[in-house]
Amino acid sequence: MKKFHESVYRSITKAVTFRILIIILDFIVIYLFTKRIDLTVGVIIVSNFSSTIAYFVHERIWNRVHWGKDHKD
Question: Cα–Cα distance between 6 and 62 in angstroms, integer?
Answer without folding.
Answer: 10
